[in-house]
Amino acid sequence: MIALLLLSALLADPVSADFFQFNSLSNVSTYYFNYIYCHVWEGDCQPNQEDASQQVPTGGVWSWFSQDYTGMMTAWYCSLGQCCDSGDCRITNNLTALERDLQMKLHGQHLAQSVVLKAVQGFINNPESNKPLTLSFHGWSGTGKNYVARMVADNLYRDGVKSECVRLFIAPFHFPHTRLVDMYKGQLREAIRDMVLRCPQTLFIFDEAEKLHPGLIDAIKPYMDHYDNVDGVSYRRAIFLFLSNIGGAAINEVALDFWHSGQNREDIGMEDLEHRLRSESMDAEGGFAQSELMSGHLIDFFVPFLPLEYRHVKLCARDAYAARGVEPDEATLDEVAKAMLYVPKEEKLFSAQGCKSIPQRINFFLP
Ligand SMILES: *[C@@H]1O[C@H](CO)[C@@H](O)[C@H](O)[C@H]1NC(C)=O
Ligand SMILES: *[C@@H]1O[C@H](CO)[C@@H](O)[C@H](O)[C@H]1NC(C)=O
């Protein structure tokens, strides 16, 4: 704080005028970090830092600075946990890592891989977009919906799902009682608004969204729409992910049809699924499906998760072993994969549990 006062005293007039318009610490810190980074430490100025540097006149002001003050300033800045060249350290937006994770760690989901990457990439590279990003993940349990949501959180935020900028809502856990829906509405709105005020880019994940009361969805719907702001708060830099099993049956049917007709699973296209998913989502029972969210076209992308086959389960098992530092042989992987239940009865093609609880299951097979 002392450093801050010193700093403002030292600054030339045009700067301090600008300076005091920034009345929140985090605004000040982002602003000054960019400035210091570019001018004092002579770091590489990223394009996104140019804005900040252009607003500050490049006079001799900073040459008055002794090393000590710069040190104090840095300490103060970093004590806020904001010491990063992207401006806000909580946000990492590492799209390269997201792409790599989707390709390497997610098995059997070529559609989710490309749709999620494209959607997130588009959103991040286009800060002027006029609407938050809303994605709806569909599929059976164990197919990777949660896993992908976690990947998004991990690669966009330094602290992943634990980040101050990420919030996970599990419908039956956070909003269990229908009779309390009015109270939940208020809480949910408050929670979202609060986070959007605290973070320049937020992520909200709704797990088991099929169990969300329609009233709750409709309560937060304005935040997902094309409004510039709601009560003076802008929600345009928010990402909403809805995870549900709605449409799971339709997805499985398509996958099974492809298999029966001898076609490659990788040839299943969005055009084969999106329409069915959309219509099934709207027909399905329950809140999320019946909410205006679906009918109002507020979902930007429907992301189908295909049912997983034996070979995918083996890949999941291999990953789970690798995470424990074990390199299993094929026979071990087969053993793990064989222990899962496969459906439908005749074809025995898809793992009923997907890759769910594979990390726990391998305990039984560990040497
Ligand atoms: C932070 O800065 C933005 C513009 O850069 C401004 O709209 C917002 O009101 C500021 N926040 C606070 C709390 O001052
Ligand atoms: C993104 O993540 C990769 C892999 O974790 C890492 O090597 C790279 O440095 C990161 N990029 C940025 C800009 O942080």
From TrEMBL:
<dbReference type="Pfam" id="PF06309">
    <property type="entry name" value="Torsin"/>
</dbReference>
<dbReference type="GO" id="GO:0005788">
    <property type="term" value="C:endoplasmic reticulum lumen"/>
</dbReference>
<dbReference type="Pfam" id="PF21376">
    <property type="entry name" value="TOR1A_C"/>
</dbReference>
<dbReference type="InterPro" id="IPR049337">
    <property type="entry name" value="TOR1A_C"/>
</dbReference>
<dbReference type="InterPro" id="IPR027417">
    <property type="entry name" value="P-loop_NTPase"/>
</dbReference>
<protein>
    <submittedName>
        <fullName>Torsin family 3, member A</fullName>
    </submittedName>
</protein>
<feature type="signal peptide">
    <location>
        <begin position="1"/>
        <end position="17"/>
    </location>
</feature>
<dbReference type="GO" id="GO:0016887">
    <property type="term" value="F:ATP hydrolysis activity"/>
</dbReference>
<dbReference type="GO" id="GO:0005635">
    <property type="term" value="C:nuclear envelope"/>
</dbReference>
<dbReference type="InterPro" id="IPR010448">
    <property type="entry name" value="Torsin"/>
</dbReference>
<comment type="similarity">
    <text>Belongs to the ClpA/ClpB family. Torsin subfamily.</text>
</comment>
<feature type="domain" description="Torsin-1A C-terminal">
    <location>
        <begin position="308"/>
        <end position="365"/>
    </location>
</feature>
<keyword id="KW-0732">Signal</keyword>
<dbReference type="GO" id="GO:0005524">
    <property type="term" value="F:ATP binding"/>
</dbReference>
<dbReference type="InterPro" id="IPR001270">
    <property type="entry name" value="ClpA/B"/>
</dbReference>
